[in-house]
Amino acid sequence: MTTVCIEKSPGIFDKEYMQEKRIKHLVNWQDWTDSEILDLLEYSMYVKNNRVYFSGHMQNRTLVMLFQKTSTRTRVSFEAGMTEMGGHAVYLDWRTSNFQLTDIEFEAQYLSRNVSIIMARMKEHGDLQEIVAGSQVPVINGCCNLFHPCQSLADMLTIYQDRGSISGVNLCYIGVHNNVVNSLIEITSALGIHLVLVTPIGNDNPIIDPIIEKARKKGTITWETDPRKAVENCDYVYTDTWVDMEFFNDPAYQEEKQKRIDLMMPYQVNHKLLDGLNIKVMHDMPIHSEFEISKDMVKDPRSIIFQQAENRLDAQKAIILKLLH
Ligand code: CP
Q1: Which residue has its alpha carbon closest to ligand 1 atom 6?
Q2: Fewest CB atoms less than 10 Å from the CB: which of 131, 135, 228, 234?
């Protein structure tokens, strides 16, 4: 007689094991220690330099990607990342799923019984927290109104790749204080990178105040009003859209959009601003050329924008690998 032995080994599909292990998520960087963030950055570089090695690491594992908002990079890089690691990604559109008909928490709990990991791009941070509350597997924030942690890790990976180190880096952000900035403040403060903000439209959300205060105490953040003065002392200049993606083509937002354009035009990243400077140019994309950045500056030899976008793939593979192991 043949005995078939089914050994119970703990794994990512084992709910009790995951609960005991305390599931780690990436909602923003506040739940990660500075050394965990540095370790993840170094691991991202390792994953980037050893793409073939990780080709089977997600075999038989599924990522669900829930989108309430549009995306190019986040969708493509997460899906390509799972494919390259031998796994699978399911795209779930908010409008054509049943999320909008019921409690987010219950739908999230269901998802986590069928997949290994969830990435969600939600309009409201509170809705993302409901997904976390329901999920029994790790949840990754794919950009909400308050944070964009995956972008910020790819940004730091780009600087690390460009310089071979993050030591002594001065990064200047010129634009509107938005979700990308919040994650930049968190990650630069964790890594000891100096961030100069030129943000005529500043933070208006009290939830972010403690994050700013932490960076201020660590001495990693300062503000400057003159963009030329700011870039003269920096290694990298970073900009982003002046209008949040969900409002860009919204007819009800056009008056506010025009107000922002009028206020922000003197802060455009262009050749005049960067004349004579050996500074690298960053943008998280999508680009609204001739608004926050001139088209020729996107194509300038100092631009590392497309490298930065490419690095979403490697940074997110590292996040998935860390959260599932
Ligand atoms: N930077 C970024 O998140 O790009 P998408 O909005 O295209 O995903």
Answers
A1: 71
A2: 228
Residue 20: which pLDDT band, with cuts at 50, 70 and 90? low
Q: Is 65 in the pocket of ligand 1 (CB under 6 A)?
A: no
Mean pLDDT of 218-244: 96
Amino acid identity of 44?
S
The CA–CA distances, whole Å, from 245 to 33, 73, 176, 256, 287 equal 30, 13, 13, 14, 11
The atom of ligand 1 lying closest to the CA of 75 is 8
The pLDDT-based confidence of 11 (bands split at 50, 70, 90) is very low
pTM: 0.93
The protein residue whose alpha carbon is closest to atom 7 in ligand 1 is: 72
Residues of the chain with CATH 3.40.50.1370: 15-147+312-323, 151-306
283 Cα: distance to centroid of ligand 1 (angstroms): 11
